[in-house]
Amino acid sequence: MQETFRRIIADGGVQNVHKDILPVEEIFRIQKMDEVKVVEARFLC
Length: 45
Fold this sequence. Notes:
With 45 residues, the chain is an all-alpha fold. The protein is built from 3 helices and no strands. It has helices at 2-11, 24-30, 33-44.
């Protein structure tokens, strides 16, 4: 991740690393955000 960020800064954009960046939906899936939202709803009601 740090290497990817270094490349973004060096290149001035994501054009050379876009294939290495996960979509936000995949990040949420890995973090199990659907489960987090269920638990969050229980505590906020």
